[in-house]
Amino acid sequence: MSDVNSRISDIVKENDVVLFMKGTPLFPQCGFSSRAVAILDHCGVAYESVDVLQDMEIRQGIKSYSDWPTIPQLYVKGEFLGGSDIMMEMFEAGELKQLMDEKNVAKAES
Fold this sequence. Notes:
Elements: H1 2-14, E1 17-21, H2 31-43, E2 48-51, H3 56-66, E3 73-76, E4 79-82, H4 84-92, H5 95-102
Parallel strand pairs: 1-2
Antiparallel strand pairs: 1-3, 3-4
């Protein structure tokens, strides 16, 4: 399991914003992942996505890495924020965009 944890840790450290999701941003494979992508796209930030359906070790490992049972999972500057419900609450309150600005997250290329 430590090999998976180090892989996940590397992904989280190497990218300002990482979304572990089911599917890809162009083809989300569940409603929660689709909502998470829409929120990040609306925030206009650059982000990396990891399709957990393509790697069963990552799919199981991310749950223990974050101590969070569901996917999608969002990390910003190495910090775990939560899943799509938390993302939605933060987005609606204006907190997600504020956090992205405070952390100087790169903007998405248009």
